[in-house]
Amino acid sequence: MALGKEIMGSSLIERSSFVSSSRALINHNFQQGLNKNQFLVNPVLVPEQRKMYVHRVVKGPVAAISEDLIKSKSPIVPEKAVKFKVRAVVTVRNKHKEDFKETIVKHLDNITDKIGRNVALQLISTEVDPKTKASRRSNEAGLKDWSKKSNVKAERVHYTAEFTVDSTFGVPGAITVNNKHQKEFFLESITIEGFACGPVHFPCNSWVQSKKDHPGKRIFFSNEPYLPSETPPGLRALREKELKNLRGDGKGVRKLSDRIYDYDIYNDLGNPDRGIEFARPNLGGEKIPYPRRCRTGRGPTDTDMDAESRVEKPTPMYVPRDEQFEESKHNTFTFGRLKAVLHNLIPSLKASISADNHDFGAFSDIDVLYREGLLLKVGLQDEIMRKLPLPKVVTKIQESSEGLLRYDLPKIVSKDKFAWLRDDEFARQALSGVNPVSIQRLQVFPPKSNLDPGIYGSQESALKEEHIVDNLNGMSVQQALEDNKLYIVDYHDIYLPFLDRINALDGRKAYATRTIFFLTPLGTLKPIAIELSLPPTASSSRSKRVLTPPVDATSNWIWQLAKAHVCSNDAGVHQLVNHWLRTHASLEPFILAAHRQLSAMHPIYKLLDPHMRYNLEINALARQSLISADGVIENCFTPGRYAMEISASAYKNSWQFDMESLPADLIRRGMAVPDPKQPHGLKLLIEDYPYAQDGLLIWYEIENWVRTYVNHYYPNASMICSDKELQEWYYESVNVGHADLRDADWWPSLANCDDLVSILTTIIWLASAQHAALNFGQYPYGGYVPNRPPLMRRLIPEENDPEYEIFMADPQKYFLSALPSLLQTTKFMAVVDNLSTHSPDEEYIGERQQPSIWTGDAEMIEAFYGFSAGIGQIEKEIDRRNTNPNLRNRCGAGVLPYELLAPSSGPGVTCRGVPNSVSI
């Protein structure tokens, strides 16, 4: 019983100076609350003989008052302020593991806590004291029992602090936290108990730094949402101060403990101090437009004043402290990196043992990676484990090392080992694979280039009607076009300007490709022609070549090589443009601007909060090891050192924010047409298009939730136009975060509710479902490299080429030698395995931290639960579709179900699950 009272706070309140109001006042306040759409919350406990339920007034503060102050049928005139006690329940999240230094500092803090170097809190009212013209503040109170609870092993530890306030205090709207310890701690939430309005919640979810590192007190606001114009007088100055702190002054090198959000260009991808071959052009600016990234403030390199100095692994790169991975996410990512280290070391050693093992000798060599593991294959397990100077953690897992060094079987070959060889599977993946956003309806035949013919040669395609007419089921080409039967994946213009440089790289060979598909009566696609282009040269007239489906053994191997080149190009565009640029990089400016311009009290910040989680951290890690010079992308993908320039070219020439919504994108690509008779106002021209089918369900569920939310806070357009924080957020996102494209005429305006709904829905869609569709299938589809090679090392030989005889003598060996080497393959597999993994702390769409208190607006909490239920229904519908035999692009013998947009998932590589944010 005593424990129950302690948890509920009743023992404290029974000792406090609480007295009740009259029943008439309660009824009056209750009726007023109903008239203002305010809501009831949990009752506060009062002395036993005077228990009552008190209605919470959301926007108007209510303090505990004495019934002696109530005069029947008279105004409320306080004669004397009544003092009473309230309690803070503070939830701190512990780390599961601490290093030695952290343990020592923790013990020191426990000692000094007892002598006053503690964690101190102070309540700040929503009201202003009429005498001082400043916010009303409570006394400063220290957290109790910090040292006593220091050895508690629970993930969350609850502390208390006690304040004395009086009846004029009002309702607390903010709280300051002063950490006088040496060590930072993670503050999850604070709940204030004892006010007549009921508990007041402060969802914090932030690291609180030591006063010695950051002298200012941390400010946290309650969960009550306020538009800037509605900010209570007591919180206005604090609201502005906190935003000013988050913006910083744009100067100096950022410390890892800082919480400052600012912009910079991508000037840290190269490392010219290592040598000229590691120098890379800066991305961002008039010369090479690109989105902005989070500023770190590091100094320039020694050899190039315009390049920012590098921070190499394992030294972390700066992102604001609250953007860094939480412990379980960090552990998942680190374990994945350990796997990558082991996977990459072994092939390196194996490659150094003999000169003939750089290539796979047979497809069975690839199978061994999943069946036996590399160490067993080369017979070096004991020797490697004995000689490698790896950390102790590796020796501890020596017994399970076989599992670490053996790759999981990718899903693409789990149901049908030879599925990747089939034309129908090659085509199916254009609709329901890991990159289903490149395919377009072919509207003009032959297709034309938009490149400058003076530089890149004739715009005319080599495709002719005779190449495809025999595969059109008796239709003419014009009929097929008019009946929406022809589709194309066109990588001609994005690759051709870079081909001379790519093909000059060691071990890289590529074409600019176009692939034509025909839509069969069954609703599936079949490839009917592949065009391969090289830059025109004076010495060769063979710059363009068309291949069609095979008719014999020789043409079959040539066709397989052509498909592999198409897949290699697809892998590059997928990773550099559709995945990295369109989700990771393009969203970062919106997130930076949100932290800089939208107060944590702002309703739109509260809406966006779960969709911003981890984006800055994963992008910083990408700059450190994935998209940097000599990083994974350059090592494993066809464009090599020109990879990010291809990404920047796509940003300049084809990226448009107004086309990033799913409906707009489908219409732009000709995959859908507007149709008001359809449920979502769109008609898909390929009905069995799994990405679009499932994506539209999620898109409109997000849109409905956002519209409900926006209409609740902005009943008219004038409120949107006059919302200074909102307008500054969007202005800065465009004009600073996307400064190089700020003058484009396609940027949406922000003048009414429809504008805001469209902008927010697009951002949430990109951060959640779009990213999920493009990310979590990378290992399931790409982990078997012949299905989707990230690079190619040989062109396709023609009859008079010297290599043609080699190809004819052993076409399988030639095919395998054109794929990535053993080292490239295993490195790529390790990375995409890591990138396809859900961490245990993943938060999926329809979920959010502290679901019942993330906002103090009960109506929006209820609406969010409705959104969550809608997402649950979508999952059931996706499951139903995946068992429908009429949907042949997601159901059939050896066909993978399309689950990349199924909302929920467990941890690991699951090929499903839609996290709220770009978190990996």
What coarse outline follows from CA principal-axis ratios?
globular
N-to-C CA distance: 46 Å
Portion of residues in beta strands equals 5-15%
Low-confidence stretches: 1-76, 353-357, 375-403
Average pLDDT figure:
87
Strand order of the largest sheet: 11-12-13-14-15
Q: In this structure, how is the largest beta sheet organized?
A: 5 strands, antiparallel
Overall number of strands: 19
Q: What helical percentage do the residues reach?
A: 25-40%
Question: Count of DSSP helices?
Answer: 32
Rg, nearest Å: 31 Å
Structural class: alpha+beta
Protein name: Lipoxygenase
Subcellular location: Cytoplasm; Plastid, Chloroplast
Family: Belongs to the lipoxygenase family.
Keywords: Chloroplast, Cytoplasm, Dioxygenase, Fatty acid biosynthesis, Fatty acid metabolism, Iron, Lipid biosynthesis, Lipid metabolism, Metal-binding, Oxidoreductase, Oxylipin biosynthesis, Plastid, Transit peptide
What does this 3D model show about the protein?
Helices cover 38% and strands 12% of the residues. It has 920 residues and is an alpha+beta fold. Helix 24 (690-713) runs antiparallel to helix 32. The longest helix is centred in the middle third of the chain and has 45 residues, at 553-597. The model is unreliable at 1-76, 353-357 and 375-403 (pLDDT under 50).
Key features?
globular, alpha+beta, single chain
Summed up:
With 920 residues, the protein is α+β, with helices and mostly antiparallel strands.
Write the layout of secondary structure elements.
Elements: H1 2-8, H2 10-14, H3 23-35, E1 83-93, H4 100-113, E2 119-128, E3 135-142, E4 156-166, E5 172-179, E6 185-193, E7 200-208, E8 218-221, H5 236-247, E9 263-264, E10 293-294, H6 327-353, H7 363-371, H8 374-378, H9 381-387, H10 392-396, H11 401-404, H12 423-432, E11 440-441, H13 453-456, H14 465-468, H15 477-482, E12 486-490, H16 492-495, H17 499-503, E13 512-519, E14 525-533, E15 544-547, H18 553-597, H19 603-608, H20 615-626, H21 632-636, H22 643-653, H23 662-668, E16 672-674, E17 682-684, H24 690-713, H25 717-722, H26 724-737, H27 753-775, H28 778-782, H29 804-809, H30 811-818, H31 822-835, E18 837-838, H32 858-881, E19 908-909
Helix pairs in contact: 6-31, 18-20, 18-22, 18-26, 18-27, 18-30, 24-27, 24-32
